[in-house]
Design a protein that fits this description.
Number of strands of chain A: 0
Structural class of chain B: mainly alpha
Oligomer: heterodimer
Shape of chain B: globular
Number of helices of chain A: 1
Radius of gyration of chain A: 20 Å
Number of domains of chain A: 1
Helix content of chain A: over 70%
Largest interface: A-B, 27 and 38 residues
Distance between the termini of chain B: 8 Å
Number of domains of chain B: 1
Largest sheet of chain B: none
Largest sheet of chain A: none
Shape of chain A: rod-shaped
Number of strands of chain B: 0
Order of helices and strands of chain B: HHHHHHHH
Order of helices and strands of chain A: H
Strand content of chain A: under 5%
Strand content of chain B: under 5%
Helix content of chain B: over 70%
C-alpha cells in the first residue's frame, strides 16, 4: 500500500461519459422542446 | 415576457462555444495535465466535477435573482427565466452528485457518504427538484409564478450552506477548489471547462426561457388589442401582464 490511488481510468472515463450523456441529453431536450413549441405557436395552438 | 419570437442565434452560438471549450478543456485535463500526487489519474475527474459544482451554484443563484426580480416587478420574463435557471441548476446538481459518487468510490471506498457537503447537496437537489414538480402541478400561471418564486428564495438558503459546509463542519469532502488550493498545472483545464459549462448553460437557459415564454403565451391567450386592453379590468393579484 503506497497511499497513492492506482489506476482508476475506468472511473475517469465513467465520469466523463456520464457528463457528456447528461449534458447532451438535456441540451437535446431543450432544442427539441424549443422547436416543438415554436411549431405549435406557428400553428396557432 | 421573454421574447418568444426572438430569432437571435446568440444562445445557439453560446452552446456551440461551450461545447468547443468543454472538448478542449477535457482533452487538456485527460491527456496533457499531470496526474495528482496522491489520487493519480482519478483526480482528472476534477476537471468536470469542480466546474459543474461552480456552475450548478451559479445557475441556482441566477434562479434566486429571477425569483426576487419577479416578486418585485411582476414581469413574466423573470418567471420564464426562473423556470429555466432552476431546471438547469437541478440538472447540473444531479450531474454533480453522479460525478462525485464516481470519484468517491476509488478515493473514499464508498459511492456515497452522509457527510455535510454531500447531505446539503442532496437537500439542494430535492428542494429545487420539488419546486420544479410544484410548478408542473399548478395550473394557474400567477399562483405558479408567485409560489415558485417564494419557494426558490427559501430553498436558496441551502446554496451558501453547501458552499461553506466544508469549512463549517468536519467533512470527508475536500475544501473548496480555487486557484489558491489547486496546483498551477491544473488551472487551465479547470478554467476552460468552467467557462465551457458557463457558456453552455447560459445558452440553454436563454432557449429554455423562450420555451417557457411560448408555453405561457399559450396559457394566457393572445394579447388584447390596444383599445380592448384599455377597458380590460386590472389583474386580480397584480401578477398577470
Amino acid at each position: 500500500m503506497s497511499g497513492v490511488v492506482q489506476g482508476g481510468w475506468e472511473f475517469v472515463i465513467a465520469a466523463y461519459v456520464v457528463s457528456a450523456l447528461i449534458l447532451t441529453g438535456y441540451a437535446s431536450s431543450v432544442f427539441f422542446r424549443y422547436r416543438s413549441e415554436k411549431a405549435r405557436a406557428t400553428r396557432g395552438g | 415576457m421573454t421574447n418568444p419570437n426572438s430569432q437571435s442565434r446568440v444562445p445557439q452560438v453560446l452552446v456551440a462555444g461551450g461545447v468547443v471549450l468543454l472538448l478542449a478543456g477535457s482533452f487538456w485535463g485527460l491527456f496533457k495535465a499531470p496526474g495528482e500526487i496522491f489520487m493519480g489519474d482519478v483526480q482528472r475527474i476534477m476537471y468536470v466535477h469542480v466546474p459543474t459544482a461552480w456552475n450548478a451554484m451559479l445557475a441556482l443563484s441566477f434562479a434566486f435573482v429571477c425569483a426576487v426580480a419577479f416578486l418585485f416587478t411582476n414581469s413574466w420574463k423573470w418567471d420564464n427565466r426562473l423556470e429555466a435557471g432552476m431546471e438547469m441548476g437541478v440538472v447540473l446538481s444531479i450531474l454533480l452528485c453522479m460525478q462525485g459518487a464516481i470519484w468517491a468510490k476509488p478515493t473514499w471506498g464508498v459511492w456515497w457518504d452522509w457527510d455535510p457537503r454531500l447531505t446539503t447537496t442532496a437537500v439542494m437537489v430535492f428542494a429545487f427538484g420539488g419546486i420544479l414538480a410544484l410548478r408542473n402541478a399548478v395550473e394557474d400561471p400567477v399562483k405558479r409564478a408567485v409560489w415558485s418564486s417564494v419557494a426558490c428564495i427559501v430553498a436558496f438558503a441551502d446554496v451558501p450552506i453547501v458552499y461553506f459546509s466544508v469549512k463549517w463542519w468536519n467533512s470527508l469532502h475536500q475544501a473548496q477548489s480555487s486557484p489558491a488550493t489547486v496546483s498551477k498545472a491544473f488551472h487551465w483545464p479547470l478554467r476552460i471547462n468552467a467557462f465551457g459549462i458557463l457558456f453552455l448553460w447560459i445558452g440553454l437557459v436563454a432557449l429554455r426561457s423562450r420555451v417557457a415564454a411560448l408555453r405561457l403565451r399559450g396559457e394566457l391567450g393572445p394579447p388584447l388589442p390596444k383599445a380592448a386592453e384599455a377597458q380590460a379590468p386590472a389583474p386580480a393579484s397584480g401578477g398577470a401582464p
